[in-house]
Sequence to fold (92 residues):
Amino acid sequence: MKKAIAGSIVALVAVFGAHTLLAQTQPAAQPQLDAKQIIAKLESAGYTSITDVEKDDGMWEVDAVNSAGQRVELDVDPVSGNVVREQPDDND
Fold:
């Protein structure tokens, strides 16, 4: 009986210890930028006429004019503010 209890305690310690270790090694969630911060990042990158700033599927979706003067739709990373996709705006 003592061996069974000791084995159970060892198993519990292993499970909870592993869980604690995993929780400590997972990166903390990074704060996301709000709409004003996204606009400021885009303006500093040369985008103008920024409109329709909306969050969808975890990304910021933005309509703007790029440095070449073309109307574009952007997908912007919510943490870094970097443009991850730029394509022509078909809604002209």
